[in-house]
Amino acid sequence: MEDDDNKCAHSACNCMVVDNQDYCSEHCEDADDQDIVEIRCDCGHAACQ
User: Fold this and answer.
1) Whole-angstrom Cα distance, residue 17 to residue 28?
2) Domain limits of the chain?
3) Residues 23, 9, 12, 4, Cα dihedral to 10°
4) What is the pLDDT of residues 1-47, one digit of tens each?
5) In this structure, are residues 15 and 24 in contact, taking their beta carbons and an 8 Å threshold?
6) What is the pTM of this model?
7) E strand intervals along the chain
8) Which DSSP letter does residue 45 get?
9) Residue 43 near residue 28, CB atoms below 8 Å
10) Per the CB 3.0–4.6 Å rule, which of 6, 9, 35, 43 could disulfide with 25?
11) For residues 20 and 41, what is the distance between their CA atoms, to the nearest angstrom?
């Protein structure tokens, strides 16, 4: 489960983040803050395409 420590905190996102970040993008942070439920993440990064 070590890999999950560096995964974006937005549940629909598959992106990895650097150690001091929770989210890979503003999109993911906003979606999580607003409790937006996504079937597929729309952050635009390759891991979520």
Assistant:
1) 12
2) 1-49
3) 120
4) 455 789 999 999 999 999 899 999 999 999 999 988 899 999 999 99
5) yes
6) 0.83
7) none
8) -
9) yes
10) 43
11) 21
Other Cβ atoms less than 10 A from the Cβ of 42: the count is 16
Report whether 5 contacts 17 (CB < 8 A): no
Which tokens belong to 32?
Answer: 């999580």
CA distances from 17 to 39, 46 (A): 20, 13
Tokens for 10, please give them: 């937005």
Residue 44's Cα: distance from chain center in Å?
11
> Rounded to whole angstroms, how far apart are CA atoms 41 and 15?
10
